Structure formats: C-alpha cells, structure tokens
Amino acid sequence: MFTKAVSPELEQPSTVAFHNITIDGETATYTLEKDTLNIQIHEKLTLKQEMKVHFSYEFTLP
Length: 62
Description:
The protein is an all-beta fold and 62 residues long. The model has no long low-confidence stretch (mean pLDDT 87). It has strands at 15-23, 26-27, 30-33, 36-39, 53-60. It starts with 14 loop residues before the first strand and ends with a strand. The chain has a three-stranded antiparallel sheet, with no helix packed on it. The protein has a two-stranded antiparallel ribbon with strand order 3-4. The protein is elongated, with a radius of gyration of 15 Å.
C-alpha cells in the first residue's frame, strides 16, 4: 500500500481507515502494519470450515 509510512516520497500517498471488521457477525480484533492486515480469530479452523469476514473501510489512491 502506498501510505506515507511505506512510500514517504509520494506527494499524495494513499490512506486507509478501517471502521469495523467482523467475523460471523462478531467484532474482530485486527492490526494493520504497513500493507499487512492481521485479523485475530478465536478458534482454530478445521478442514473446509468457513467464516464470513466483513470489512467497513475507506481507501484513497495516491
């Protein structure tokens, strides 16, 4: 991602703001470091298990 922290040479870097992330309808804890989004899940996934993840965010391009 071309944010100021990752690409300080850009005149107008991109921005991102996450408002809400949910897993199966429950609020999830997450971190965003540079261009890596990590979402913590509270249980181990079994083979072929599915979870629904929803994101609410704003993003601007550089």
